[in-house]
Design a protein that fits this description.
Helix content is 26%, strand content 20%. Helix 4 packs parallel to helix 10 and helix 7 runs antiparallel to helix 8. It has 640 residues and is α+β, with helices and mostly antiparallel strands.
Length: 640
Amino acid sequence: MSKLSVAALSFTILATGAIADGVPSEEAAEGTFPAKPFSPYANRTIPERPLWGDSHLHTGLSLDAGAFGNTLLPDEAWRFAKGEQVISSTGQPVRLSRPLDWMVLTDHTDLMGFAPDLQAGKPAVLADPKGREWYEGYSKGGEAAGKSAFDLITNFAQMTLPELLLESYSPGADAFAFTWEHIVDAAERHNDPGTFSAFIGFEWTSVPKGFNLHRNVMLRDGGVRAKQVVPPVTQPPYGDTNPHTLYDWLEMYEEKTGGRAVAFSHNGNLSNGWMFPTEDTYHGGEVDQEYVDRRAKWEPHYEVTQIKGDGEAHPALSPDDAFADYENWDIGNLDLTELKTEEMLAGEYAREALKQGLALEAKFGVNPYKFGMGGATDSHTSLTTAEEENFFSKSVSVEPSPTRIEHPFIKSELGEIPGHLMVASGYTAVWATENTRAAIFDAFKRRETYATTGPRMGLRFFGGWEYTDDDLRTRMPAQNGYEKGVPMGGDLRPREGDAAPSFMIYALRDPIGANLDRMQVVKGWLTPDGELDEKVYDVAWSGDRVADANGVVPAVGNTVDLETASWSNTIGSAELMTVWTDPYFDPEARAFYYVRVLEIPTPRWIVYDKVRYGIDLPEEAQLTHQERAYSSPIWYTPAE
């Protein structure tokens, strides 16, 4: 044996003996670890502020946006979201009150590249008789352009687009590929880690027979991965409207590129019951193990409020909730080719889906509707405006003007959705550790997000088993929140002892917005007998109001001046906080909890139009409302 081998063996024996015999003293061990720093901000790893963004915006590259006259392309959309002033497609200067922190640009994938060519009268459009007809209508402007655009959208919804145009603007065509590169390159130019996160994304626009089954897709990655693929479409023979085909594409994307992606649906209120199925799917499938597994994997987020109606709750589903009627659109499907019946509502609204998810989890072991909450604009103007006084509508055809409320959003032989029902919503706040694509995407995946209808309210929501009022007696209660429980979007830790869950909640008004009326906890549960139920609790409120025998707090009041489109913050509170414990907790019942925060009443955008233009408003128009925020839920699952 060499001297080196003997030395190594001796070292091994000594080291082994040291490990076996050398137990350090408590005093010696104390010096091994650094003491807690004096600075309370040092070594902090928790998310410290909400990052505000829009997860759903269209530019002039989208088929419908371009057909209605949007000439602003991705660069203008990104500059606007970052706080710069731009000129809208109707020639109006516009700017946000404050920059956003991030955005997902989600142009429609079907007929990608067609809209700019339609506006320019390119040969590929004029080669088809229908394409020439649409171009001539667009060129005339006014009523002719509007009819042309609606005819184009109707042909898309009914899947009767000309074959030549589909071939020229679908995957495999140059125009499609070049447009995707345009989208990717623009996002890369505007992504500024630490300051602004520009996400590459798209909208997969499934709308079979007018039933809204749309999904937006958000990529965690940059251009190197995104350019290895082109996005999927829904128009046959190049694509399919079945969500399973989107899930197939997402799996392909991750396998091929090593990247990450998520999808999220929106406007279940326009699906006529098909957005959240519990038995059969629209495409003839079943809600089976495969369905719940795939939906749970790919859709961790839901766009609960946006311009085409708020989708949290509906009075018919939640008759005991006095605030369930917030700007509902419940007339029919997306193009009003089928009117809605009350039986359809259960498959359309977020709260009901959360309840049904508990039942499906009990059946399959997986909850397909375990989603976080978010808000978005779905603006087709390239302008992500969600403020009532700065609302640039959904389409260029109804950007600010004295006559915009006269234009219905959609009209058919069966009915119409009047222009004054357009909703200014909304934004998503993300609790991310830094302003980067990776950190924000990861927050979406863990559902640490909340939705607002426009105002930038601060909202924290933590669930655990041992919170007390003392946990709020600090200017950084979130530190206690994370240490003793889980944040919004999480699952309660396993129950110890006989305690009921406690929740630490606090909210701050938007610094330039309205005071707060109240905070509510919305609870949904599945009883051991298989019954679904819900209850809304007022848990904190402003002023000296007193809850009645049922725990309901009276209205906060109203200070809106309709003649000046203003209000006074003489009622309400700038801040609300509480630790609330579930008074009717059943340890055998699956449950979810989320927070709803209401502002005091403020004017709707049509009141600002009334003051600006001196116009008369429809008598049936809702003139004031209480803007709100919705947290992602926290779930409780009984121990097996």
